[in-house]
Amino acid sequence: MTEKQDVMNACDSHESGKKIGRTSLLDSGEDFEVLDEEDIDDDPPPLEDAGGGKGNNSEESEKKNTDSDSDPAGPMDEWMDVLGNGQLKKKVLEAGEGRDSRPQKGQNVKINLKTYLKDGTLVAEQTDLSFTLGDGDVIQALDLTVQLMEMGEKALVQADAKYAYGVRGSLEPEVPSNSELSLEVELLEAIDAPDLELLPPADKIALASLKRERGNVHYQRADYAFAVNSYSIALQITESSSKVDISPEEENELMGVRVKCLNNMAASQLKLDHFDAALKSCVSALEHEPENIKALFRMGKVRSPFLYIVSLFLKNCFLKPLGFFSLKVLSLKGEYTEAVKTLRKALKLEPSNKTIHAELSKLVKKNSEQRGAEQAMYKKMLGNPGGSGGSQKHQATPTWGLSWKWLFGATAAAIGGVALSVVIAARN
Known about the structure:
Largest sheet: 6 strands, antiparallel
Mean pLDDT: 74
Number of helices: 11
Order of helices and strands: HHEEEEHEEHHHHHHHH
Strand order of the largest sheet: 1-2-5-6-3-4
Distance between the termini: 125 Å
Low-confidence stretches: 7-74, 310-316, 318-334, 387-402
Helix content: 40-55%
Number of strands: 6
Structural class: alpha+beta
């Protein structure tokens, strides 16, 4: 009787723990394996069973153990260090439907979300929030942790500002700069993304515009790499083939979104100093709209940094008489010509644009500095670093004359050496 009562008490305490306490995730004290950010898609390592089945062989306890095995979320009081740096942690509040129900990157998910500041202030509550997992549609804290949630699971996420709204904070929701956040998340749904080939044109335009707008948000927050990612996704949508009829008007609208994405991508790539990539983006935009002012302006701007960098390089290094420098300058003269030509074309289309005026003036000034560096280098190579143009011309003749004399002497010596070798060979 006493033994039976002990078993019943153990079961009651197990159920009350399930309702209230949520036993610790790993009673043995074993930590989660540290996950790298790029490995976040993978399931975390299976947990050791740390608390169940001490000498309880009854059918009821076996059933409970079976139920707990089918619930991979396990005990719920333990924090998971998602990235291993202590800046992004997740804790299960209510278990979900099992590991197999976890969403995959690229799926469209729907969640309920409550956002709190570190002091507990509720700043936002959103129901049925939908986004594509892994596309950067939401803050990193959500993109990284929702992948680890099970369907129906409720979780608490603690995120450092780095994985939330950063140093700039946010106006909507109203989050101050450098704020740590607590997020209460419930995963409601995860479905595969629609087939772009079968997507109606209006929906395709709306989806591409949504991704582009998200890129604009990243750009405004100076997250230029994330902005490039969002614009790339938008471009993939606009460039995807379609098995659905599309009208000329819809085709033009889709093309307009594509050009905007290319322009914005070029701006982001310029901020990242990815000049070659930015140039390709401008060229692609101009293929669709040859007189697009933004694309022309950015193309001119793309080329000018190369000239400026090399002009500074030459200014500091022209005393070294290396032919490589002069070759480099000659190759970049074409870039300068194209840059000025492109900016003047943009200015012709929009004469009142002060930004284009300023960039063109800046480019002309940089080119003037470069030409001065070239002239100084050439004077040094000709042996007259400080002389005027006239005296340089006057001194150039004896320099070349001396060179011819040396060449003639070297040739004569070579011929004499050959003759001497022939004579010695004949004697032998």
